[in-house]
Amino acid sequence: MEIYYFMGYIDTSRPCEKDFDPSETVDKGTVSIGKEEYQLIKNYIAGLQNVESDKNSTYSMCLQCNMYDSSKDFETRLSVGQFGPMSLGDNFVERNDTLLYLLRKNAGFYNYYHLNDLPRYCKEVERFGVPENYQDMTAYFDTSNVLYAKIRILVE
Question: Which superkingdom heads the taxonomic lineage of this protein's source (predicted)?
């Protein structure tokens, strides 16, 4: 699984149903998750229901998750807007805060928000709490050249 996300506060409209060029991203390396958590993520994605949307894109993108099958061929893409729709492939799907929390937590997404701002910008934090691995990185990143981070998530 590869996750791309906007580092920090979104002040622009950029689509996320695209392929990212390496020059657009900061490579954050690789993290590992357990098989149970990975299966939970897959189950949540498989269970997403299509919804009607008046939007034609997930603008104000904050996260894109690319899932691969065992041969590393592209399998599916989940795109998440900051407050609005989620899309799975070409379909808009219901927003699932549990799924969103699992993806953002494992990707390090929350680290680019001040602790006090997390509930305002990331509503799921109100329900699930700040992740144990949270580190305030807002003082240590520069988005003058790149706006997106890329991280690979492997199954242990």
Answer: Bacteria
